[in-house]
Write a structure and sequence with these properties.
TIM Barrel, transferase, Rossmann fold, zinc, alpha/beta, tRNA-guanine(15) transglycosylase
Length: 486
Amino acid sequence: MRMREVFELKDKDVMGRIGRLKTAHGVIETPAILPVVRPGADASRLRKFGAQIIITNAYLIYRSPELRNQARDLGVHRLLGWDGALMTDSGSYQLYEYRAIEVENSEIVRFQQEIGSDIGVPLDIPSSIYISHSRARAELDRTLNRLREARELIDDERDGMILAGTIQGSIYPDLREYAAREASRIGFDLYPIGGVVPLMEQYRYGDLVRVILHSKINLEPSAPIHLFGAGHPMVFALAVALGCDLFDSAAYALYASDGRYLSPSGTYFIEKMEYLPCSCPVCSERSPEDLRSDKDLLADHNLYTSFEEIRRIKEAIREKRLWELVQMRVRSHPSLLEGLKSAVSFADLIERFDPISKTSFFYSGPESSRRPEVIRYSNRLDRFELGGTVLITTERVLKQLNIEHDHLFLLKPPFGPYPVELSETYPVGPSEIPKTPDHEAMVVAGSNVRRLIELNPDVRFIIACEQEWKGYIGDIEKGQVEVVWV
Protein backbone atom coordinates (compact mmCIF):
# COMPACT_ATOMS: atom_id res chain seq x y z
CA MET A 1 0.00 0.00 0.00
CA ARG A 2 1.16 3.56 -0.68
CA MET A 3 1.97 5.68 2.34
CA ARG A 4 -0.55 8.43 1.51
CA GLU A 5 -2.66 9.83 -1.28
CA VAL A 6 -0.76 12.55 -3.14
CA PHE A 7 -2.39 12.32 -6.58
CA GLU A 8 -5.88 13.56 -7.46
CA LEU A 9 -7.53 12.91 -10.82
CA LYS A 10 -9.17 15.86 -12.62
CA ASP A 11 -9.91 14.52 -16.10
CA LYS A 12 -8.98 11.59 -18.32
CA ASP A 13 -8.98 10.23 -21.86
CA VAL A 14 -7.60 6.93 -23.21
CA MET A 15 -5.14 6.06 -20.38
CA GLY A 16 -4.01 9.68 -20.07
CA ARG A 17 -5.14 11.97 -17.31
CA ILE A 18 -4.95 15.50 -15.99
CA GLY A 19 -4.09 15.25 -12.32
CA ARG A 20 -2.89 17.15 -9.27
CA LEU A 21 0.31 15.92 -7.61
CA LYS A 22 0.66 17.26 -4.06
CA THR A 23 4.20 18.08 -2.90
CA ALA A 24 5.69 19.98 0.05
CA HIS A 25 6.30 22.95 -2.29
CA GLY A 26 2.94 23.11 -4.00
CA VAL A 27 0.51 21.21 -6.17
CA ILE A 28 1.67 20.21 -9.66
CA GLU A 29 -0.79 19.77 -12.50
CA THR A 30 0.06 16.79 -14.66
CA PRO A 31 1.04 15.92 -17.35
CA ALA A 32 4.12 17.94 -16.48
CA ILE A 33 7.66 18.44 -17.72
CA LEU A 34 10.53 18.57 -15.24
CA PRO A 35 13.37 20.52 -16.87
CA VAL A 36 16.73 19.11 -15.82
CA VAL A 37 18.78 21.73 -13.99
CA ARG A 38 22.53 21.44 -13.60
CA PRO A 39 23.55 21.44 -9.91
CA GLY A 40 24.49 24.96 -8.91
CA ALA A 41 22.69 26.65 -11.81
CA ASP A 42 19.96 29.27 -11.36
CA ALA A 43 16.59 27.66 -12.08
CA SER A 44 14.42 30.75 -11.52
CA ARG A 45 14.35 31.59 -15.25
CA LEU A 46 12.36 28.41 -15.93
CA ARG A 47 9.20 30.02 -14.56
CA LYS A 48 8.72 31.97 -17.80
CA PHE A 49 8.21 28.71 -19.71
CA GLY A 50 5.48 27.52 -17.35
CA ALA A 51 7.59 25.08 -15.30
CA GLN A 52 5.99 24.04 -12.02
CA ILE A 53 8.60 21.47 -11.02
CA ILE A 54 12.24 20.81 -11.89
CA ILE A 55 14.69 17.95 -11.42
CA THR A 56 18.36 18.00 -10.51
CA ASN A 57 20.98 15.36 -9.78
CA ALA A 58 21.52 14.72 -6.07
CA TYR A 59 24.56 12.54 -6.77
CA LEU A 60 26.39 15.32 -8.61
CA ILE A 61 25.66 17.65 -5.70
CA TYR A 62 26.82 15.02 -3.22
CA ARG A 63 30.14 14.35 -4.93
CA SER A 64 31.08 18.06 -4.88
CA PRO A 65 32.12 19.06 -1.32
CA GLU A 66 31.23 22.69 -1.98
CA LEU A 67 27.77 21.98 -3.40
CA ARG A 68 27.13 19.28 -0.81
CA ASN A 69 27.77 21.67 2.06
CA GLN A 70 25.72 24.44 0.48
CA ALA A 71 22.82 22.10 -0.15
CA ARG A 72 22.87 20.90 3.44
CA ASP A 73 23.12 24.42 4.82
CA LEU A 74 20.70 26.20 2.49
CA GLY A 75 18.55 23.39 1.12
CA VAL A 76 18.47 22.36 -2.50
CA HIS A 77 15.73 24.87 -3.37
CA ARG A 78 17.80 27.89 -2.32
CA LEU A 79 20.88 26.34 -3.93
CA LEU A 80 19.08 26.46 -7.29
CA GLY A 81 17.08 29.65 -6.70
CA TRP A 82 13.82 27.72 -7.03
CA ASP A 83 10.80 28.05 -4.75
CA GLY A 84 8.60 25.43 -6.41
CA ALA A 85 8.48 21.66 -6.32
CA LEU A 86 11.77 19.87 -6.95
CA MET A 87 12.72 16.27 -7.67
CA THR A 88 16.20 14.82 -7.27
CA ASP A 89 17.72 11.90 -9.14
CA SER A 90 19.98 9.54 -7.24
CA GLY A 91 22.78 9.04 -9.78
CA SER A 92 21.32 6.01 -11.56
CA TYR A 93 22.18 7.50 -14.95
CA GLN A 94 25.82 7.89 -13.90
CA LEU A 95 25.69 4.33 -12.61
CA TYR A 96 24.41 3.18 -16.00
CA GLU A 97 27.14 5.11 -17.83
CA TYR A 98 30.11 4.21 -15.61
CA ARG A 99 28.82 1.01 -13.92
CA ALA A 100 30.07 2.21 -10.51
CA ILE A 101 29.70 5.39 -8.47
CA GLU A 102 31.06 6.45 -5.11
CA VAL A 103 27.92 6.43 -2.99
CA GLU A 104 25.71 3.85 -1.31
CA ASN A 105 21.96 3.68 -1.77
CA SER A 106 21.24 4.54 1.87
CA GLU A 107 23.61 7.53 1.74
CA ILE A 108 22.04 9.12 -1.33
CA VAL A 109 18.48 8.50 -0.10
CA ARG A 110 19.21 10.14 3.26
CA PHE A 111 21.02 13.00 1.48
CA GLN A 112 18.00 13.76 -0.69
CA GLN A 113 15.86 13.96 2.43
CA GLU A 114 18.44 16.15 4.23
CA ILE A 115 18.57 18.76 1.47
CA GLY A 116 14.79 19.08 1.28
CA SER A 117 13.95 17.32 -1.99
CA ASP A 118 10.20 17.07 -2.61
CA ILE A 119 10.57 13.82 -4.56
CA GLY A 120 13.51 11.50 -3.97
CA VAL A 121 14.63 8.40 -5.84
CA PRO A 122 16.56 5.36 -4.55
CA LEU A 123 19.73 4.32 -6.38
CA ASP A 124 18.19 1.77 -8.73
CA ILE A 125 20.16 -0.36 -11.23
CA PRO A 126 19.35 0.66 -14.84
CA SER A 127 19.71 -2.52 -16.87
CA SER A 128 21.00 -2.46 -20.43
CA ILE A 129 18.56 -3.41 -23.17
CA TYR A 130 21.11 -5.90 -24.50
CA ILE A 131 21.70 -8.11 -21.45
CA SER A 132 20.34 -11.62 -20.87
CA HIS A 133 17.15 -12.31 -18.97
CA SER A 134 19.06 -13.89 -16.08
CA ARG A 135 21.33 -10.89 -15.66
CA ALA A 136 18.41 -8.48 -15.92
CA ARG A 137 16.63 -10.47 -13.20
CA ALA A 138 19.70 -10.33 -10.95
CA GLU A 139 19.99 -6.55 -11.41
CA LEU A 140 16.26 -6.15 -10.82
CA ASP A 141 16.52 -8.05 -7.54
CA ARG A 142 19.25 -5.63 -6.43
CA THR A 143 17.02 -2.69 -7.38
CA LEU A 144 14.11 -4.12 -5.39
CA ASN A 145 16.35 -4.63 -2.36
CA ARG A 146 17.36 -0.97 -2.63
CA LEU A 147 13.73 0.09 -2.88
CA ARG A 148 12.96 -1.86 0.30
CA GLU A 149 15.94 -0.30 2.05
CA ALA A 150 14.85 3.20 0.99
CA ARG A 151 11.30 2.56 2.14
CA GLU A 152 12.56 1.63 5.61
CA LEU A 153 14.63 4.83 5.74
CA ILE A 154 12.00 7.29 4.53
CA ASP A 155 8.48 7.72 5.79
CA ASP A 156 6.72 10.03 3.32
CA GLU A 157 4.36 11.56 5.84
CA ARG A 158 6.97 11.99 8.60
CA ASP A 159 9.84 13.17 6.41
CA GLY A 160 7.86 15.24 3.90
CA MET A 161 9.62 13.73 0.87
CA ILE A 162 7.76 11.64 -1.66
CA LEU A 163 9.77 8.51 -2.35
CA ALA A 164 9.63 7.18 -5.90
CA GLY A 165 9.86 3.46 -6.66
CA THR A 166 11.55 2.97 -10.03
CA ILE A 167 10.47 0.10 -12.28
CA GLN A 168 13.34 -1.68 -14.04
CA GLY A 169 13.62 -4.98 -15.93
CA SER A 170 15.28 -4.21 -19.29
CA ILE A 171 13.04 -5.14 -22.27
CA TYR A 172 11.61 -8.30 -20.68
CA PRO A 173 7.82 -8.07 -20.16
CA ASP A 174 7.72 -10.59 -17.31
CA LEU A 175 10.44 -8.69 -15.41
CA ARG A 176 8.68 -5.35 -15.87
CA GLU A 177 5.46 -6.88 -14.57
CA TYR A 178 7.27 -8.49 -11.64
CA ALA A 179 9.08 -5.23 -10.82
CA ALA A 180 5.81 -3.28 -10.81
CA ARG A 181 4.10 -5.88 -8.66
CA GLU A 182 6.90 -5.92 -6.08
CA ALA A 183 7.29 -2.13 -6.03
CA SER A 184 3.55 -1.81 -5.39
CA ARG A 185 3.85 -4.20 -2.47
CA ILE A 186 6.65 -2.12 -0.98
CA GLY A 187 4.47 0.98 -1.42
CA PHE A 188 5.34 4.25 -3.14
CA ASP A 189 3.46 7.41 -4.13
CA LEU A 190 5.17 7.76 -7.51
CA TYR A 191 6.54 5.16 -9.93
CA PRO A 192 9.20 6.14 -12.47
CA ILE A 193 9.77 3.77 -15.40
CA GLY A 194 13.52 3.62 -15.89
CA GLY A 195 16.02 2.20 -18.34
CA VAL A 196 14.20 3.43 -21.46
CA VAL A 197 16.53 6.14 -22.80
CA PRO A 198 18.40 3.69 -25.11
CA LEU A 199 15.07 2.63 -26.62
CA MET A 200 14.19 6.24 -27.44
CA GLU A 201 17.67 7.00 -28.75
CA GLN A 202 17.31 4.09 -31.18
CA TYR A 203 13.69 4.93 -32.08
CA ARG A 204 12.49 1.58 -30.72
CA TYR A 205 9.08 2.94 -29.83
CA GLY A 206 7.37 -0.43 -30.15
CA ASP A 207 9.60 -1.74 -27.36
CA LEU A 208 9.08 1.46 -25.37
CA VAL A 209 5.30 1.03 -25.52
CA ARG A 210 5.57 -2.57 -24.35
CA VAL A 211 7.85 -1.56 -21.46
CA ILE A 212 5.38 1.13 -20.35
CA LEU A 213 2.29 -1.05 -20.54
CA HIS A 214 3.83 -4.15 -18.99
CA SER A 215 4.89 -1.88 -16.12
CA LYS A 216 1.42 -0.31 -15.85
CA ILE A 217 -0.36 -3.67 -15.68
CA ASN A 218 0.64 -4.32 -12.07
CA LEU A 219 0.76 -0.75 -10.73
CA GLU A 220 -2.08 0.92 -8.88
CA PRO A 221 -4.23 2.61 -11.55
CA SER A 222 -4.31 5.85 -9.56
CA ALA A 223 -0.53 6.08 -9.08
CA PRO A 224 1.32 8.79 -11.05
CA ILE A 225 3.94 7.53 -13.53
CA HIS A 226 7.22 9.23 -14.42
CA LEU A 227 8.85 8.22 -17.72
CA PHE A 228 12.54 8.80 -17.07
CA GLY A 229 14.48 10.45 -19.88
CA ALA A 230 11.54 11.15 -22.21
CA GLY A 231 12.26 14.75 -23.19
CA HIS A 232 11.30 15.01 -26.88
CA PRO A 233 7.87 16.58 -27.52
CA MET A 234 7.15 14.19 -30.39
CA VAL A 235 6.71 11.30 -27.91
CA PHE A 236 4.69 13.12 -25.22
CA ALA A 237 1.21 12.49 -26.67
CA LEU A 238 1.75 8.75 -27.11
CA ALA A 239 3.31 8.40 -23.65
CA VAL A 240 0.51 10.35 -21.97
CA ALA A 241 -2.09 8.23 -23.77
CA LEU A 242 -0.43 5.18 -22.19
CA GLY A 243 -0.71 6.64 -18.70
CA CYS A 244 2.56 8.54 -18.16
CA ASP A 245 2.25 11.75 -16.14
CA LEU A 246 5.75 13.21 -15.66
CA PHE A 247 8.65 13.70 -18.07
CA ASP A 248 12.13 14.94 -17.19
CA SER A 249 13.77 16.83 -20.01
CA ALA A 250 17.46 17.42 -20.54
CA ALA A 251 16.76 17.20 -24.27
CA TYR A 252 16.02 20.91 -24.58
CA ALA A 253 19.65 21.74 -23.71
CA LEU A 254 21.38 18.66 -25.11
CA TYR A 255 19.70 19.03 -28.50
CA ALA A 256 20.42 22.76 -28.56
CA SER A 257 24.13 22.15 -27.91
CA ASP A 258 24.09 19.96 -31.01
CA GLY A 259 22.22 22.57 -33.07
CA ARG A 260 18.93 20.70 -33.10
CA TYR A 261 15.58 22.48 -33.20
CA LEU A 262 12.70 20.55 -31.57
CA SER A 263 9.13 20.36 -32.80
CA PRO A 264 6.21 18.04 -31.96
CA SER A 265 6.64 16.41 -35.36
CA GLY A 266 10.40 15.84 -35.26
CA THR A 267 13.84 17.41 -35.10
CA TYR A 268 15.45 19.92 -37.46
CA PHE A 269 19.07 21.03 -37.75
CA ILE A 270 19.18 24.78 -37.28
CA GLU A 271 22.12 25.04 -39.71
CA LYS A 272 19.86 23.88 -42.54
CA MET A 273 16.81 25.98 -41.69
CA GLU A 274 15.75 29.11 -43.59
CA TYR A 275 12.45 29.66 -41.76
CA LEU A 276 11.31 29.21 -38.18
CA PRO A 277 7.88 27.52 -38.20
CA CYS A 278 7.23 28.19 -34.52
CA SER A 279 5.62 31.34 -33.05
CA CYS A 280 7.11 31.07 -29.55
CA PRO A 281 8.68 34.26 -28.06
CA VAL A 282 12.08 33.19 -29.42
CA CYS A 283 11.09 32.34 -32.97
CA SER A 284 8.59 35.14 -33.49
CA GLU A 285 11.26 37.80 -32.97
CA ARG A 286 14.40 36.18 -34.38
CA SER A 287 15.84 34.50 -37.46
CA PRO A 288 17.47 31.10 -37.90
CA GLU A 289 20.82 32.91 -37.93
CA ASP A 290 20.14 34.22 -34.42
CA LEU A 291 19.53 30.69 -33.15
CA ARG A 292 22.56 29.34 -34.97
CA SER A 293 24.80 31.80 -33.16
CA ASP A 294 23.15 31.53 -29.73
CA LYS A 295 22.54 28.00 -28.39
CA ASP A 296 20.82 29.44 -25.30
CA LEU A 297 18.12 30.89 -27.55
CA LEU A 298 17.79 27.53 -29.28
CA ALA A 299 17.43 25.82 -25.89
CA ASP A 300 14.72 28.34 -24.96
CA HIS A 301 12.81 27.53 -28.15
CA ASN A 302 13.08 23.82 -27.34
CA LEU A 303 11.59 24.44 -23.90
CA TYR A 304 8.76 26.63 -25.21
CA THR A 305 7.91 23.92 -27.75
CA SER A 306 7.92 21.20 -25.10
CA PHE A 307 5.60 23.09 -22.74
CA GLU A 308 3.31 24.05 -25.61
CA GLU A 309 2.90 20.38 -26.50
CA ILE A 310 2.00 19.50 -22.91
CA ARG A 311 -0.70 22.19 -22.92
CA ARG A 312 -1.99 20.87 -26.24
CA ILE A 313 -2.19 17.38 -24.75
CA LYS A 314 -4.10 18.64 -21.72
CA GLU A 315 -6.65 20.35 -23.95
CA ALA A 316 -6.97 17.15 -26.00
CA ILE A 317 -7.67 15.20 -22.81
CA ARG A 318 -10.26 17.77 -21.73
CA GLU A 319 -11.99 17.59 -25.13
CA LYS A 320 -11.61 13.76 -25.28
CA ARG A 321 -9.49 14.07 -28.43
CA LEU A 322 -6.24 12.54 -27.18
CA TRP A 323 -6.41 9.55 -29.51
CA GLU A 324 -6.76 11.83 -32.53
CA LEU A 325 -3.75 13.87 -31.39
CA VAL A 326 -1.71 10.70 -30.95
CA GLN A 327 -2.60 9.54 -34.44
CA MET A 328 -1.43 12.86 -35.87
CA ARG A 329 1.83 12.77 -33.92
CA VAL A 330 2.82 9.19 -34.72
CA ARG A 331 2.61 9.85 -38.44
CA SER A 332 5.62 12.12 -38.14
CA HIS A 333 7.94 9.09 -37.95
CA PRO A 334 7.50 5.40 -38.96
CA SER A 335 8.97 4.24 -35.64
CA LEU A 336 6.38 6.22 -33.69
CA LEU A 337 3.67 4.67 -35.83
CA GLU A 338 5.11 1.28 -34.90
CA GLY A 339 4.72 2.35 -31.29
CA LEU A 340 1.01 3.01 -31.75
CA LYS A 341 0.60 -0.34 -33.50
CA SER A 342 2.17 -1.97 -30.46
CA ALA A 343 -0.22 -0.01 -28.23
CA VAL A 344 -3.36 -1.24 -29.99
CA SER A 345 -2.30 -4.82 -29.28
CA PHE A 346 -3.07 -3.87 -25.65
CA ALA A 347 -6.54 -2.63 -26.65
CA ASP A 348 -8.36 -4.60 -23.95
CA LEU A 349 -6.13 -3.07 -21.25
CA ILE A 350 -6.52 0.45 -22.63
CA GLU A 351 -10.30 0.02 -22.84
CA ARG A 352 -10.48 -0.48 -19.07
CA PHE A 353 -9.17 3.06 -18.51
CA ASP A 354 -10.84 4.99 -21.34
CA PRO A 355 -13.97 7.04 -20.45
CA ILE A 356 -17.24 5.41 -21.47
CA SER A 357 -18.85 8.62 -22.71
CA LYS A 358 -17.44 11.32 -25.00
CA THR A 359 -18.86 13.87 -27.40
CA SER A 360 -18.06 12.12 -30.70
CA PHE A 361 -15.89 9.49 -32.37
CA PHE A 362 -13.45 10.46 -35.15
CA TYR A 363 -12.08 7.71 -37.37
CA SER A 364 -8.61 8.94 -38.32
CA GLY A 365 -6.75 5.93 -39.66
CA PRO A 366 -6.53 2.13 -39.51
CA GLU A 367 -5.49 2.16 -35.82
CA SER A 368 -8.92 3.65 -35.02
CA SER A 369 -10.45 0.24 -35.65
CA ARG A 370 -8.79 -0.91 -32.42
CA ARG A 371 -9.71 2.12 -30.35
CA PRO A 372 -11.17 1.48 -26.89
CA GLU A 373 -14.64 2.57 -28.03
CA VAL A 374 -14.68 -0.06 -30.78
CA ILE A 375 -13.42 -2.81 -28.48
CA ARG A 376 -16.00 -1.87 -25.86
CA TYR A 377 -18.84 -1.90 -28.39
CA SER A 378 -17.82 -5.33 -29.67
CA ASN A 379 -17.65 -6.70 -26.13
CA ARG A 380 -21.19 -5.48 -25.43
CA LEU A 381 -22.98 -6.96 -28.42
CA ASP A 382 -24.31 -9.62 -26.08
CA ARG A 383 -26.43 -7.01 -24.27
CA PHE A 384 -29.03 -6.74 -27.03
CA GLU A 385 -32.22 -8.74 -26.42
CA LEU A 386 -33.40 -9.83 -29.85
CA GLY A 387 -36.21 -11.96 -31.23
CA GLY A 388 -38.18 -12.48 -34.41
CA THR A 389 -36.53 -10.95 -37.50
CA VAL A 390 -33.55 -8.60 -37.40
CA LEU A 391 -32.79 -6.47 -40.46
CA ILE A 392 -29.15 -5.36 -40.84
CA THR A 393 -28.63 -2.75 -43.54
CA THR A 394 -27.07 0.62 -44.35
CA GLU A 395 -28.76 4.00 -44.32
CA ARG A 396 -28.59 4.27 -48.12
CA VAL A 397 -30.01 0.82 -48.79
CA LEU A 398 -32.73 1.20 -46.15
CA LYS A 399 -34.40 3.85 -48.31
CA GLN A 400 -34.84 1.28 -51.09
CA LEU A 401 -36.23 -1.57 -48.98
CA ASN A 402 -39.66 -2.70 -47.86
CA ILE A 403 -38.82 -5.64 -45.61
CA GLU A 404 -40.79 -6.46 -42.49
CA HIS A 405 -38.66 -6.74 -39.36
CA ASP A 406 -38.83 -6.67 -35.58
CA HIS A 407 -35.45 -5.00 -35.02
CA LEU A 408 -33.49 -2.68 -37.29
CA PHE A 409 -29.68 -2.51 -37.15
CA LEU A 410 -27.67 -0.12 -39.30
CA LEU A 411 -24.12 -0.86 -40.50
CA LYS A 412 -21.34 1.58 -39.78
CA PRO A 413 -17.63 0.73 -39.95
CA PRO A 414 -15.76 0.02 -37.74
CA PHE A 415 -18.57 -0.75 -35.26
CA GLY A 416 -20.60 -2.94 -37.58
CA PRO A 417 -24.30 -3.38 -36.75
CA TYR A 418 -25.98 -1.06 -34.26
CA PRO A 419 -29.67 -0.68 -33.37
CA VAL A 420 -31.31 2.34 -34.94
CA GLU A 421 -32.36 3.42 -31.46
CA LEU A 422 -28.67 4.23 -30.74
CA SER A 423 -28.36 6.57 -33.71
CA GLU A 424 -27.90 9.57 -31.41
CA THR A 425 -25.83 7.75 -28.79
CA TYR A 426 -22.04 7.72 -28.39
CA PRO A 427 -19.99 6.21 -29.92
CA VAL A 428 -21.85 4.88 -32.98
CA GLY A 429 -24.21 7.82 -33.43
CA PRO A 430 -22.09 10.99 -33.14
CA SER A 431 -19.17 9.64 -35.16
CA GLU A 432 -17.23 10.91 -38.15
CA ILE A 433 -16.32 8.07 -40.52
CA PRO A 434 -14.77 8.45 -44.01
CA LYS A 435 -17.24 7.91 -46.84
CA THR A 436 -14.88 5.23 -48.17
CA PRO A 437 -13.90 3.14 -45.11
CA ASP A 438 -10.50 1.47 -45.09
CA HIS A 439 -9.96 -2.30 -45.03
CA GLU A 440 -9.32 -2.48 -41.27
CA ALA A 441 -12.62 -0.74 -40.45
CA MET A 442 -14.55 -3.07 -42.75
CA VAL A 443 -12.90 -6.17 -41.27
CA VAL A 444 -13.89 -5.20 -37.73
CA ALA A 445 -17.42 -4.28 -38.83
CA GLY A 446 -17.81 -7.63 -40.62
CA SER A 447 -16.50 -9.47 -37.57
CA ASN A 448 -19.12 -7.76 -35.39
CA VAL A 449 -21.88 -8.79 -37.82
CA ARG A 450 -20.78 -12.41 -37.38
CA ARG A 451 -20.55 -12.02 -33.61
CA LEU A 452 -24.08 -10.61 -33.34
CA ILE A 453 -25.44 -13.54 -35.34
CA GLU A 454 -23.52 -16.11 -33.28
CA LEU A 455 -24.83 -14.59 -30.07
CA ASN A 456 -28.42 -14.98 -31.27
CA PRO A 457 -28.76 -18.46 -32.81
CA ASP A 458 -32.59 -18.47 -32.55
CA VAL A 459 -33.07 -15.15 -34.35
CA ARG A 460 -33.71 -14.73 -38.09
CA PHE A 461 -31.39 -12.21 -39.75
CA ILE A 462 -31.82 -10.42 -43.06
CA ILE A 463 -28.70 -8.59 -44.28
CA ALA A 464 -29.21 -6.07 -47.08
CA CYS A 465 -26.21 -4.01 -48.11
CA GLU A 466 -23.98 -2.81 -50.95
CA GLN A 467 -21.70 -5.03 -53.02
CA GLU A 468 -18.55 -3.67 -51.32
CA TRP A 469 -19.49 -5.64 -48.21
CA LYS A 470 -19.18 -8.96 -50.05
CA GLY A 471 -15.52 -9.38 -49.21
CA TYR A 472 -16.29 -9.07 -45.50
CA ILE A 473 -19.61 -10.87 -44.97
CA GLY A 474 -20.14 -12.53 -48.34
CA ASP A 475 -19.95 -16.06 -46.93
CA ILE A 476 -22.18 -15.45 -43.96
CA GLU A 477 -25.45 -16.73 -45.44
CA LYS A 478 -26.76 -19.88 -43.76
CA GLY A 479 -30.00 -21.24 -42.27
CA GLN A 480 -30.90 -18.30 -40.05
CA VAL A 481 -29.36 -15.64 -42.32
CA GLU A 482 -30.64 -14.28 -45.63
CA VAL A 483 -28.38 -11.89 -47.58
CA VAL A 484 -29.57 -9.38 -50.17
CA TRP A 485 -26.95 -7.57 -52.25
CA VAL A 486 -27.92 -4.18 -53.63
